[in-house]
Amino acid sequence: MIRIATLSLAVLLLCTGLHRVGAQSMGSTYTSTAAKDCRRIGKPSELDGSTTRICPGKNGLMVLIAEDDLREIVSVGRNRKAAEEEPAAKAWFAPFNSSETTVEWRAVGTRPFAIIQRWHIADGTDLDKQGRPNTKAMLVVTRLPPGPVCHVAYVDAIANPNANDLAREAADEFAGSFTCGKDEVKIIGARGRAVELATMR
Questions:
Q1: pTM for this prediction
Q2: Is 145 helix (H, G, I), strand (E, B) or coil?
Q3: 101-117: per-residue pLDDT in tens?
Q4: CA-closest candidate to residue 141, choices 182, 185, 199, 97
Q5: Among candidate residues 167, 59, 156, the one with its CA nearest the CA of residue 104
């Protein structure tokens, strides 16, 4: 009886220790999608200057940034072709938009499972002095392979002062179990104008 109890305690301590190590190894690293850090694909469009570029990411993954008609898509894959075939490569926001050039990679150890990126969504009802739409900031959480690459969660950066923390929590909690094409993208925290613009159809 004592031997069994001791063994059970040892197993419990071992499991607790492994859980603690796993939790401690979760964290963030960063890469750039700035033009100088990426490889441009083809020539800019003569019509509107649209471009496509492929940028080094983490753990052998590449980030695809494609711009068309003042709207961007961001996808991830082992190479350009793989990234272009992911659901994220077809996830367009209706208003004009752009993504910032810093990509946050959420990972357990060296294995990334999600990226977080800040986007700017143009608000056609809020114009500056030159008549151009002001933009509203939003964080996008995107799940990574294994499995499809797609948007998991949106966090309005203005409506939520702790937007970065909320986005990391959403990545950690939802990215692994999110089913692309079936689950709806989650709105995390308070809804704001950026989320409203991003989800309009």
A1: 0.85
A2: coil
A3: 999 999 999 999 999 99
A4: 185
A5: 167
